[in-house]
Amino acid sequence: MGKTIRFGVSLDSDLLDKFDLLCEEQSYQTRSEAIRDLIRNTLVKKEWEDTDREIAGTLTMVYDHHQSQLAQRLTELQHEAHEVIMSSLHVHLDHDNCLEVLVLKGQGEVVRRLGQKLISTKGVKHGKLSLTTTGEDLV
């Protein structure tokens, strides 16, 4: 870990007031903590642009398990991509609907393609792929 460097930032007072309000709403103890998170978020988003880079993420899906062959198809797709699925959670939301969460880790393009394939499977009511970093290059 590198040494801490102090630097100055010039901001319009209205922008700073809005930033301070955001810091308070999100329970940041200092502006520095908030700025560090903003920088890290930008660096993580940049990682996602590199399709060869290893990334992590979660895929959340809601679907009706009564939909003909849907559960079987989703299971088949997951088995075809077992190398990027680290874990899964299946929850019965009610009599008809299931929530499934997959924890993914792998090459960026492979993770994105799997997410899109599962979300676009006929019968999936809603799906969302949330990407993050493996954390290797963050400080």
From TrEMBL:
Protein residues bound to Ni(2+): 79, 90, 92, 98
UniProt entry tagged with the keyword Iron: no
Gene3D superfamilies given in the database record: ACT-like. Chain A, domain 2, Met repressor-like
Residue ranges annotated for the Ribbon-helix-helix protein CopG domain, each copy included: 6-45
Details of cofactor binding: Binds 1 nickel ion per subunit.
Keyword Transcription regulation: yes
Single Gene Ontology MF annotation: nickel cation binding
Function: Transcriptional regulator.
Family affiliation: Belongs to the transcriptional regulatory CopG/NikR family.
Name of the featured protein: Putative nickel-responsive regulator
Natural source organism: Desulfovibrio ferrophilus
